Fold this sequence. Notes:
Blueprint: H1 16-27, H2 37-41, H3 49-58
Amino acid sequence: MGLNWIPMRKPKNGFERRFEEIYFVLTGKEKAKKPGRFGKLLGRRVLSGEELRNEWNNI
């Protein structure tokens, strides 16, 4: 029986929504959302798996 003794971290206050978004993308339950027209104008893009893991660790 494999137990995970490392509990999942809790997000910083104010980052709960982003924390859930990253979790669902990393576990494969949802696909990453593509930026809309306004997001493209601002230079937003879809983050890679490594970039998402780095953001996850910083939250």
